[in-house]
Design goal:
It comes from Microbacterium profundi. It contains nine helices and eight strands. By secondary structure, the chain is of the alpha/beta class.
């Protein structure tokens, strides 16, 4: 018996990279998998169901169960069809993993509105689209299973990537969305968590090993397959204790991030004045001035 035996999963963006590794590991652990991928290029252009079909073929050849879906997560109705594929083909939906994404990297001063919107459409709106349809199903079938929503965020969003304002905004938006789902869907038996991966992409795959070493990048530590293992745990029935958290994954390291909490608080006993806030703010929060004087 595999760790995911008799569970049904949808994995978006599963035609290659991390998504493909997740789909294959899920299937090897007994899950029935909908392998979704539009087959677009990194920038979102083009359509090719071939990569997703290749993943399905590999799963089936290894004795697993999977079907392909070439739907576009950024389209609301298409996202509904992705979810419905799991229900029609396998009778239910237990797990939704939102991996699908594109890149259109620009510095802010060079970023056009079309490139801003395209990235948000796939990452943030796409995550909403599939999750909304899954949530409707899970609400209707509450009490019938242990459901899992797993969304993909990124260090670009958690820490800010200067050349990816669109991607960073979308990925941090996914964290907020995930936390909202964690609070709203637990009553239906759903846990909602986010994964922040560090793994080889099509870009890092072009870096020669010697150049990567000079840059301090260990390509072996960025294998997409490594990300699949903590995702599989989150997808399992054993992970019900974890909800509304961000999990980092890279190589052999898995990190549980602490959710936002106050670092320090400035309190005034009286209504603020302009002089009072200008005097007290740096004394309370500036790392070189903290503790130099009492707070207002």
């Amino acid at each position: 018996m595999g760790r995911l035996e008799n569970r049904v999963a949808v994995v978006t963006g599963a035609g290659g990279g991390i998504g493909a590794e997740i789909a294959k590991l899920f299937a090897s652990e007994g899950a029935k998998v909908v392998v979704n991928d539009l087959g677009a290029q990194v920038d979102g252009s083009g359509v090719d169901v071939g990569p997703a079909q290749s993943v399905v073929n590999e799963i089936v050849a290894n004795g697993g169960e999977a079907v392909v879906n070439g739907g576009d997560v950024s389209n609301y109705d298409s996202a509904g069809e992705i979810v419905q594929t799991a229900i029609d083909e396998f009778g239910k939906l237990d797990i939704l993993v939102n991996v699908a994404g594109i890149l259109r990297d620009r510095m802010l001063v060079n970023l056009g509105p079309e490139d801003w919107q395209a990235v948000l459409d796939v990452h943030l709106t796409g995550t909403f689209n599939t999750s909304k349809h899954a949530a409707v199903y899970w609400r209707e079938h509450r009490g019938e299973g242990q459901y899992r929503l797993i969304n993909f965020t990124s260090g670009a969003g958690l820490f800010g990537s200067p050349g990816q304002p669109n991607y960073a905004a979308a990925k941090l938006g996914i964290v907020g969305f995930t936390l909202s789902c964690a609070h709203a869907l637990d009553r239906y038996g759903v846990t909602s968590n986010a994964i922040a991966p560090a793994a080889a992409t099509r870009m890092t795959g072009t870096i020669p090993p010697e150049r990567a070493a000079e840059m301090g990048i260990n390509l072996a530590d960025l294998a997409p397959s490594a990300i699949a293992y903590p995702v599989a745990y989150l997808a399992s029935e054993e992970s019900g204790w974890l909800n509304g958290r961000v999990v980092g994954a890279q190589g052999g390291r898995v990190t549980l991030y602490e959710n936002y909490r106050p670092e320090s608080t400035l309190v005034s006993q009286d209504a603020w004045t302009i002089d009072g806030i200008f005097e007290s703010f740096p004394r309370a929060f500036h790392p070189e001035k903290q503790g130099l004087a009492g707070l207002a």
